Each structure stands twice: as C-alpha cells, then as structure tokens.
C-alpha cells in the first residue's frame, strides 16, 4: 500500500519553529535545506523532511537515523532499508511524501495560467489531443498541470528522472471509465496512477507499480 502525506509549510515562516524542526532531521536534510537561497524553498525542503520522518515512524524508523544512497539518475533511497520506497515533492505552500513497499513516484504543482507552451514543447501527441479538446481555458490549463504531475510522478517511479524524455511516454486519460494508463517502453511493468484534489489550486499525482494499491485519501500532517 502507498500512503501519501501532505502539509502546509507556511508554519515554518516562524523562525523558532523552523529551527526546532530542522534540528530533528538528518545532517543530509539539514545540509540540503541550508544550501537553498530562498526562505520559501527552505520551508518546502524542511516540510518534505518532516513528512518523510512522519511516514517512517510507521516502520519504527526516524529520518535522522537513516542513511541515504543516491541512484544512478539521482533518486534518493534508504541505504539499509531497500524494502521501503518513498518520493518527495513540493510546490507553492505545500510538500508531499508518498511511501510504500514498491517503487513510487509523486508530484505536486501549483496551477498557474499561461503555461500551455510547456505542453506544446514536451507532451506526446495524444496528450496534446486530450488537452486541446477542452475549450475552456481554465480547465485546459488544469488538464495541462494534471498531465505534467502524472508525467513527473512516472519519471520518479522509474528512477530515471529527466534522463527519460517527456515525449517518450504518454499519459492516457479515459474520461468515461476514469482510468489513467501510461503508455511506455521503459520496462515490462504496468504502472498505476492516482490523482488527488484535497488541496485547492494544486494538482497532485502518485504513480506506483501494478501490484501495489494506493490509498484513496491523502493524509494531512500538522506540526
């Protein structure tokens, strides 16, 4: 089972709370956060670390006590716990963490107008076809971000990241059946995609391998 946790990181605007929570995390996360220049980026990085710490407690672990290893294409993993897989993402005022016992990828994006050129440049033909059948500009923009988050989550679950071209695979959305499929040639596996709408103004997607269920609801975390 894959579970996804989320939090509003604006609470870390309070410097005392920010420092208190940062001190609870691993040197890896502390350094990663310290290297960021902007306060909002630091808050998002801290939020992602706090969510991973919260998720690991289910396994009897804490983020500060684990060691990371970085995969060939840059995806972090737990060095001594290959049975646990996680994915982190953040955008705007929110961070998310997905965790499970099979490879998982996730993405969150704040929906902004005027980004359709991204689709024209990076999306596969069938994705663009689905996008532009929508006549309302606001909904068309949301479709663009829906596809983007699903593509990002697929890149993450494969561990390939941006080494895999965005046009080399396609997200197929069947409106009638509400099914989402990934057409790809990366491997022989089937990938399951789940979208969430718990956070107004954002698109969230989680992708996992075929034999792993994805929890229906996201789980809010407060500090």
Major sheet: order of its strands? 4-5-1-11
Morphology: globular
Output mean pLDDT: 92
- Radius of gyration, rounded? 17 Å
Helix content: 25-40%
For the termini, the CA-CA separation is: 25 Å
Structural class: alpha+beta
Q: Would you write up a description of this structure?
A:
The chain has 223 residues and is α+β, with helices and mostly antiparallel strands. A hairpin with a 2-residue loop joins strand 4 and strand 5. It is globular, with a radius of gyration of 17 Å. The relative contact order is 0.18.
Show the helix and strand layout.
Blueprint: E1 3-8, H1 15-22, H2 27-34, H3 39-56, E2 68-70, E3 76-78, E4 85-91, E5 94-100, E6 104-110, H4 116-122, H5 125-132, H6 137-158, E7 170-174, E8 179-183, E9 191-196, E10 202-209, E11 219-220
Parallel strand pairs: 1-11
Antiparallel strand pairs: 1-5, 2-3, 4-5, 6-10, 7-8, 9-10
Helix pairs in contact: 2-3, 5-6
């Amino acid at each position: 089972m894959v579970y996804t946790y989320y939090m509003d990181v604006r609470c870390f605007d309070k410097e005392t709370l920010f420092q208190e929570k940062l001190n609870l995390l691993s040197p890896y996360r502390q350094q990663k956060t310290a290297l960021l220049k902007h306060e909002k980026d630091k808050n998002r990085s801290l939020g992602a670390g706090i969510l991973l710490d919260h998720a690991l407690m289910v396994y009897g672990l804490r983020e500060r006590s684990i060691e990371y290893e970085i995969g060939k294409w840059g995806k972090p993993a737990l060095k001594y716990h290959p049975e646990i897989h996680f994915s982190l993402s953040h955008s705007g005022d929110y961070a998310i963490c997905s965790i499970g016992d099979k490879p998982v990828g996730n993405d969150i994006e704040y929906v902004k107008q005027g980004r359709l050129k991204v689709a024209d440049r990076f999306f596969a033909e069938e994705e663009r076809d689905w996008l532009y059948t929508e006549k309302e500009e606001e909904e068309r923009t949301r479709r663009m971000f829906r596809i983007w988050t699903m593509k990002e989550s697929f890149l993450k679950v494969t561990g390939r990241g941006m080494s895999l071209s965005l046009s080399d695979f396609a997200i197929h959305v069947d409106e009638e059946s509400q099914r989402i499929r990934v057409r790809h040639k990366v491997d022989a596996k089937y990938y399951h995609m789940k979208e969430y709408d718990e956070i107004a103004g954002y698109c969230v997607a989680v992708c996992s391998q075929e034999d792993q269920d994805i929890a229906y609801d996201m789980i809010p975390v407060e500090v």
